[in-house]
Amino acid sequence: MGAEKGLGKILILATESCAYPGADAVGQGHQSYPANTYILRVRAPVLFPEKFYLDCFDKGIAGIIIMSCGVECPYPGAYEALAKRIDRVYALMKGRGLDIRRLRLTAICTVCTRAFIKEVKQMHDLISELGPPSNDKPAAAASAA
Description:
Blueprint: E1 9-15, H1 19-28, E2 37-42, H2 50-58, E3 61-68, H3 78-96, E4 103-107, H4 113-130, H5 139-144
Parallel strand pairs: 1-2, 1-3, 3-4
C-alpha cells in the first residue's frame, strides 16, 4: 500500500510488552493498515514528557496513538501517571488550538489485531478530515469564531 501524497504521519508509541507484539501480530497476519503509520517501540510511554507530544505536532506529526498495556502495565502506577499526563497534554493542546482528537490513549494487548487496525484506521480517517496540525485554529481565533 503506497503512502498517500500530503497525508500527515501517524506516530504510534507501542509498549514493548503489549501493543508492540500486537502490532507484530498484525504484520505476521499479513493484515494491512495505512502506510503513513510509524510505530515506535517503547518500554513505557509514561517516560515521554508533555513537551514531546507538542514537539511532534510542531514538527508535522498529524496524529499520535499511545498504545499501552492499560491497567495491566508491568510498572506499578505507570498507566495512571500516563493518563494524568495525557490530560495535561490535552489542556496544552487546547491552549494551542490543536484538536485533542489528534492524540489518543488506548490499551492494546498482544493479540488485539482488530483493535490495532481499528485504532490506526480511525486516526487515519481523522487526519484525512482535519489535515495537518497547522490547519487547526489557534485558541484565540477559535474562541472568536
